[in-house]
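hey so u asked for the seq, here:
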Amino acid sequence: MHQLDLANSGEALFKVRGKFLRNMIVVGVVIAYFHGQIGPFDSDSANHLWFALSLGLALSGALVRIVTSGYAALGTSGVTKDAPVAAELNTTGPYSLVRNPLYLGRILNFTGIAMLSGSWVYGALILLGSILVYERISLYEEKFLRQEFGDATIDAWAMDVPFLMPRRHGWTKPKYPFWLRRCVKREDEKLMFMATAVVLFDLAHHGFEMSRMSENLIAYSLWAIIMLGYLVSRSLRRFTNTFDGIS
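ran it, C-alpha cells below
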C-alpha cells in the first residue's frame, strides 16, 4: 500500500484510537475467563514468569508514555480525538531516540496487557495489530507535521531518528523540564485502565468466584490506590483550575 494511502487510513484510526484500550480489555477478560490460567504453560512456575514478563512489558510502556508526556512541549502530543496538534516540533528527550515514543509506549503497554490474559496468541495478535494501527496513525501525523514545518525540517529529523524502534544513542536533553500536572492529565486514565485490567484478568482467571481468589491482595490494593488517585485527578479537573490550559 502506498504511504499516502496508509496516512489516509491513519486519519480514521486516529479519531477512534481512544477506544482501543477498553475494547482490548473486554476481549482479554473473556479470554482470561475461558483460559483459566495466568500463562500459556502447564507449569505454574513458567506461568508466573509469563505474568511477570507481561506486567513488566505493560509497565514499561506506561513508563515510556509518562516520561514522554511529562517532557513534551505544550500544544503538542495532545489528547484531542479530532486532529493532530503541534505548536512546535518535539525533537528532544524521548523524541531524540524515536519519532513516535507515545505510540511505542502504547504498543508495549497494549501487548503486555493482552499477555496478562494468559494467552500468547492474543498477545501476539495485539502486538501485530498495534504495530499496524499505530504505523498508520504515525504516518498520518507525520503528514500533518510536514504541512506545518516543511519537508526539509522533518527529513533532517527523520534522517537520524527511527520511526518506531528507538536508537541506543543520540539522547538530547529535554528542552523543557518535566511537568507533573501535564503528565497526570494525559496519563491518569491510561494508568487506571491498566490497573483495572490486571484486577479484572485476575478475577476472570478465578472464574469470578471470590472463594478461589488468592489471599495475596497486593494487586487489588494497588488498584484501589490508583483508582483513588484517578478520582482525585478527575475531581481537580472538574472543580478547580489545576489543569486549565494544559493540553
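The mean pLDDT is 89. Helices lie at 3-16, 20-35, 44-71, 101-115, 120-149, 151-160, 180-205, 218-239.
lmk if thats what u needed
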